[in-house]
Amino acid sequence: xxxxxxxxxxxxxxxxxxxxxxxxxxxxxxxxxxxxxxxxxxxxxxxxxxxxxxxxxxxxxxxxxxxxxxxxxxxxxxxxxxxxxxxxxxxxxxxxxxxxxxxxxxxxxxxxxxxxxxxxxxxxxxxxxxxxxxxxxxxxxxxxxxxxxxxxxxxxxxxxxxxxxxxxxxxxxxxxxxxxxxxxxxxxxxxxxxxxxxxxxxxxxxxxxxxxxxxxxxxxxxxxxxxxxxxxxxxxxxxxxxxxxx
Amino acid sequence: xxxxxxxxxxxxxxxxxxxxxxxxxxxxxxxxxxxxxxxxxxxxxxxxxxxxxxxxxxxxxxxxxxxxxxxxxxxxxxxxxxxxxxxxxxxxxxxxxxxxxxxxxxxxxxxxxxxxxxxxxxxxxxxxxxxxxxxxxxxxxxxxxxxxxxxxxxxxxxxxxxxxxxxxxxxxxxxxxxxxxxxxxxxxxxxxxxxxxxxxxxxxxxxxxxxxxxxxxxxxxxxx
Lengths: 246, 224
Known about the structure:
With 246 residues, chain A is of the alpha/beta class. Chain A has a domain of 169 residues: P-loop containing nucleotide triphosphate hydrolases (Rossmann fold), CATH 3.40.50. In chain A, a hairpin with a 2-residue loop joins strand 1 and strand 2. Chain A starts with a strand and ends with a helix. With 224 residues, chain B is mostly helical. Chain B contains nine helices and no strands. In chain B, helix 1 packs antiparallel against helix 2, helix 1 packs antiparallel against helix 8 and helix 1 packs across helix 9. The longest helix of chain B has 35 residues. The chains are: A alpha/beta (246), B mainly alpha (224). The interface between A and B is medium-sized, with 27 and 22 residues.
């Protein structure tokens, strides 16, 4: 049974369709990367998965249990197991780093504060920010903020981590520090759904790569298959453009 | 002008006026917190409410921001008894000022709700925060900081606005001034002293609010 199974998913922003008939399954421990041009629906797919945009059609099944996006309990159960890291970090600017990481486990999951803080300190040390516990987001670089955002997502102990273009808003020299953290998580066997424009990184860490275009997955396969021997014309065209750009 | 100033004749009223000033501050303080609570509930209704909740909130704001506060208190004090709802003059004044300021604070706080970054709300939502947790942990800390100046101004306006209480026989600063004038007929001297006391109250309120701001946000390094 797949860990996460998406079948025939449709979504729209008002009357504008943004996803049409997306189907994808993710096994436990797999890293599936979503690539494709801007506006192809990659980030929207992640937003739909975590319930920020309700799907119009289709099903999402997590470990055999269908997610009902109109039911708060079902949504809470989903969010208990999936965490997302956003492109713009989305840190709470009125809270310091430690509180950003601990607020959800303490206030939402009602876990013991001291235990959560100890865990958060360890997570922040893991992402190289053990000395920034009391800093506010505005005092950190983009790369540091994104690492806090990753630690915050991990503090929720997710089974599936969704990464939405986590390096796109960063200066080139800050990209590596974030990618290194993700490599670390891949090594630990975390199940991930990654939207990225870092093609070298996608190729390196992904179990499978899905190419999206116009709100649909046009081809899915191993990184070697997608980048070296794409089957569809759309994938060939996209890969050719990437190779030209690099 | 033939008027001869005789401040000596009103010195005996000074302790009374000072006690009245204290009552004015108390009325403003009570009304302010009541109005702030109404404003927060109103802003939540406008921001998160369904169609009917939003309509009710909009109707409340329209009623209380488009009619004079004095008329509202008159209505509470003189019209509601016709429906069997009776308030003392102090109660009517407190309810009237609170409801009036609540309308304005609903609009002020609503603008604060709108100024919270969508990104932060998305993050809070996917973490599983409820609406109340969203308001408590994300929105209120944000608006407390960005809206501190306009909310402080509203409090100072409310301190001055308590003067309407005197019209209804409340023993606030203005009420005691009216009473003292009825006894002494030294209107210019009394009103001059009263005006100075109102200035002193607003300066005091400004200083206290500045201290609160410094205490709460002065060392806060986050940029909002």
